[in-house]
Write a structure and sequence with these properties.
The complex is a heterodimer of chains A (305) and B (512).
Chain A lengths: L1 H29 L2 H6 L5 H11 L5 H13 L5 E2 L4 E2 H36 L4 H15 L2 H15 L15 H9 L2 H16 L2 H8 L4 H13 L1 H16 L2 H6 L5 H10 L3 H29 L7
Antiparallel strand pairs in A: 1-2
Chain B lengths: L3 H17 L12 E6 L14 H10 L4 E3 L6 E3 L2 E8 L2 E6 L13 H13 L7 H6 E8 L2 E6 L6 H7 L30 E7 L3 E6 L15 E6 L3 H9 L5 E3 L3 H10 L3 E14 L15 H10 L2 H9 L4 E2 L22 H10 L6 E7 L3 H13 L2 E7 L2 H9 L5 E2 L1 E3 L8 H8 L11 H9 L6 H17 L3 E13 L3 E2 L14 E2 L1
Parallel strand pairs in B: 1-10, 14-15, 14-16
Antiparallel strand pairs in B: 2-3, 4-5, 5-7, 6-7, 8-9, 9-10, 11-18, 12-17, 12-18, 13-18, 19-20
The chains are: A mainly alpha (305), B alpha+beta (512).
Chain lengths: 305, 512
């Protein structure tokens, strides 16, 4: 297990480094950082002064290593759009996105697992068809549309939940449903197929022959094994939620990392965008690593691969 | 089945907890709190370092200037100043009020005014200060409540610039010469305006409360006790908040949305004039390619004839929008429509293009960054006249970059003049000889349009603008399109005076 962990960890580190190079080079090539700081219609003299002052006139690889070493020292740079240290900005916006992502994963679980269980127990029935069509619909519906529909139904028409904001737990209910719905198809199908496989396996047949049945058989024997791969998928989904909530946060006016990313992009704030891209990618890499390790821990055969 | 009961209990408990935790938003007449929403985020409270429209509205609430632009007559009136006198064309003596208090309770004196203007002069590299330092030579304190301004040149808009641009700051607030911290007032602002900052969460929410020690100035006392400004980037979400009574005022609403929202009865749709005009500068100077078709006056005239502006307004723009014939907004000082007019005439356009040597038409890159439907309609009209239009709809930053590189033959531009009812507010930016927006390549236009800024005599200024605008129209350097309409949505309880210049004065709102 330790060798597997070292191998996967090394791969994750390589991926993170590649992403950091891509994030740095692409942004610095696409936008002139000196011009972005100076603003539109700025004097060329001022632009040149800024270029020299901030070291943008140095070769790009030197700038990259400088940036990387600063990150390793915990210095994420200064945002000239928000007039704050980037690290402070990310830390102040992260809790909101983390809460949203965790609640979204909770929504995914409470919708997909029961639905998948019913679908597996009643294979090819009306419930199964309903579950599958729900999964297809959830995958096809764009977040912004679902968000607005939820707002119209639950906030405007019935006035149960607030329309937007992130002041309290209740403000997160609609957005977490919207964000969580997009993960329902993957988790539901995986759970359903896992259950179907498990329910026809030898040990379940043996358990049945010993007199086990009903919910006890389902939850105590079948579900435990069927849910093993789902746990690792949920870890990856959590990584996606943490970095992929831009639309949901915009629709519900939630002041998290997604909105910070959007506003920073629109404001041409390269230090913040650069760091956010890196943080999002790193989060995804870490969550994928966690998923890999979970899988390997649960299924020892994977460690040999 | 044993398992069901605790699950159902838990779910019900969570739901009850959630619903019990729903906090009614403190908004509306009952709480004497006006909640407004901006699409753009408010990140900085200090208007001295920004130029965006939302910041003008905010600054009008929390800041004060020496002079005030009257909301209906656009006349410049003393504000923090009590009187002023031009000793000569280049010297203005200003006497200050003695009853003005900063939000922290300290009295405003000549030291504060001197410090503010001295800061502007020394911080001349800052983009928002460029206009001021173009004409302001120096400022000096002549008494505890009097200051003198010396101008570099005769500049008729000095009072206007003082009224619109320079917000008075407390002496020493940014630090001292050479050690200025321009972000000092970004998060907490000590202003002089009718509202003071109660709390500010950048990018999320700003709460203002009425300042009880506000002086008896031309703005008058504000009626509403609290104003909450929220950043809601999605227009659909803004509408939903308005319909649920959590927001009282939004602006910049597209016409169709505003009309349909108004019909629901849960919001009030108000429309009024905007100082913004739309136009298409044409590359008469040949910057994007020597000898390109736009360098020929008949081609430029044909382009104006080919665009059915009335039809565009009727079917796409709506509201109070009107076709303009001149390169200015009709309510601006110096604007005249006594210029050459171009009616919609497709056959005439085709004939002019053929006469110019392009019987089979020509290719044209038309750039645009907003009003996509209108841009497409314009492209369609031009195509009917035989011009093969390549509509390049892009981000404003990309358009600006291409324009700086002189790669743009024509673009759909708009300009709101910062809400200033004077042609000067549109002339300098667009007709300076070194402006990349000036595609005319005609020094005479620059001489006339900017010459009007060097004389104080209103009659002479009007005359110069008139000649300049006539030249622009005659040579078809611009396609003047239309004056925009501003659409607002308010709650039913709110009384919002529609601004004549499109710049909302939120301090004038009250409850019905």
């Amino acid at each position: 297990m330790l060798r597997y962990f070292i191998r996967r960890g090394f791969m994750a580190l390589l991926v993170a480094l590649t992403v950091s190079i891509a994030a740095f080079v692409l942004l610095n090539v696409a936008v002139d950082p000196a011009m972005a700081i100076a603003g539109e219609d700025a004097d060329l003299l001022l632009v040149e002064q800024i270029r020299e002052q901030y070291g943008f006139d140095r070769p790009i690889f030197i700038q990259y290593f400088d940036w990387l070493f600063r990150i390793m020292r915990g210095d994420f740079g200064e945002s000239y759009y928000w007039n704050k240290p980037v690290g402070e900005l990310i830390l102040s916006h992260a809790p909101v996105t983390l809460q949203l992502a965790l609640m979204a994963i909770f929504v995914t679980v409470i919708i997909s697992i029961p639905l998948a269980t019913l679908a597996a127990l009643k294979q090819n029935s009306l419930i199964d068809r309903f579950a599958l069509s729900t999964a297809v619909s959830a995958q096809a519906i764009p977040n912004f549309w679902l968000g607005l529909i939820m707002i119209i139904m639950f906030s405007v028409t019935w006035q149960i939940f607030p329309v937007s904001g992130d002041d309290s737990f209740v403000h997160f209910i609609l957005p977490s449903f919207v964000l969580g719905a997009s993960s329902v198809p993957a988790v539901m199908r995986l759970t359903r197929n896992g259950l179907l496989d498990v329910m026809t396996s030898d040990y379940i047949r043996t358990a049945r022959s010993k007199g086990f049945g009903g919910l006890r058989l389902l939850f105590k024997h079948a579900m435990r094994n069927a849910l093993l791969p789902v746990v690792s998928v949920l870890a990856v989904q959590l990584g996606q939620k943490l970095g992929g909530s831009v639309i949901t946060e915009s629709v519900f006016a939630i002041n998290g990392l997604g909105r910070l990313a959007l506003e920073s992009i629109l404001g041409g704030d390269i230090p913040t965008v650069q760091m956010l891209v890196f943080v999002f990618a790193l989060t995804f890499v870490i969550m994928t690593l966690v998923a890999d390790l979970l899988n390997a821990w649960l299924d020892p055969r994977l460690r040999l691969g | 089945m044993k398992i069901k009961t605790p699950i159902i209990k838990s779910v019900l408990m969570i739901l009850m907890f959630a619903l019990a935790a729903v906090q009614p938003v403190s908004a509306g007449k009952k709480d004497d709190t006006m909640v407004i929403a901006f699409v753009r985020e408010i990140l900085n409270l200090d208007y001295m370092h920004t130029t965006k429209r939302e910041y003008i509205m905010l600054s009008d609430l929390i800041d004060e200037t020496l002079f005030h632009v009257d909301e209906t007559t656009f006349e410049i009136k003393p504000n923090l100043a009590i009187s002023y006198n031009y000793s000569d064309d280049k010297t203005i003596d200003v006497v200050l009020r003695q009853d003005v208090t900063f939000h922290d309770g300290s009295k405003m004196t000549a030291d504060d005014v001197y410090y503010t203007y001295q800061y502007v002069i020394e911080d001349k590299a800052n983009k928002p200060h460029k206009t001021t330092v173009r004409w302001l030579e120096s400022v000096e304190k002549t008494g505890p409540y009097s200051v003198r301004f010396r101008l570099k040149t005769t500049y008729p808009l000095a009072l206007r610039d003082m009224a619109r641009r320079i917000r008075i700051r407390q002496n020493g607030i940014y630090g001292t010469t050479g050690n200025y911290d321009k972000n000092n007032q970004a998060a907490t602002l000590n202003g002089l305006g009718p509202y003071k900052v109660k709390s500010f969460d950048p990018g999320k929410e700003l709460i203002l409360e009425r300042f009880d020690k506000y002086f008896e100035g031309p703005k008058g006392k504000s009626a509403i006790a609290k104003i909450k400004i929220r950043s809601i980037p999605d227009l659909g979400t803004q509408q939903a908040e308005l319909m649920t009574g959590n927001i009282d005022w939004i602006y910049n609403v597209p016409m169709d949305v505003a009309q349909s929202m108004g019909k629901t009865g849960r919001a009030v749709h108000l429309e009024g004039p905007s100082m913004r005009i739309g136009f298409i500068p044409l590359d008469a100077g040949g910057y994007s390619g020597e000898g390109n078709p736009l360098t020929k006056v008949n081609v430029r005239r044909a382009i104006i004839h080919a665009i059915d502006r009335e039809n565009i307004i009727t079917n796409l723009v709506g509201g109070t929008s009107k076709v303009i014939d001149s390169a200015c907004h009709p309510i601006q000082f110096g604007c005249t429509d006594d210029v050459r007019k171009y009616e919609y005439n497709l056959e005439k356009a085709k004939a002019l293009i053929a006469d110019a040597g392009y019987p089979d038409g020509f290719k044209l890159d038309l750039w645009a960054y907003r009003e996509q439907q209108v841009s497409e309609a314009i492209a369609s009209d031009l195509t009917k006249a035989g011009i093969k239009v390549n509509l390049r709809y892009s981000k404003l930053s990309a358009l600006n970059k291409a324009r700086r590189a002189r790669q743009i033959p024509a673009y759909f531009g708009t300009w709101a003049s910062g809400g200033t009812a004077d042609v000067a507010a549109i002339a300098n930016v667009h007709w300076s000889i070194d402006s990349d927006r000036n595609l005319s390549g005609d020094p005479k236009v620059t001489e006339l349009m900017l010459g009007a800024e060097n004389t104080k005599d209103p009659g002479e200024r009007k005359e110069l603008y008139s000649k300049g605008l006539q030249l622009i129209a005659d040579q078809a350097y611009w396609v003047p399109l239309y004056a925009f309409t501003a659409n607002y949505l308010t709650s039913k309880d709110l009384s919002f005076p529609i601004p004549l210049d499109g710049l909302p004065r939120l301090y004038k709102t009250s409850w019905k």
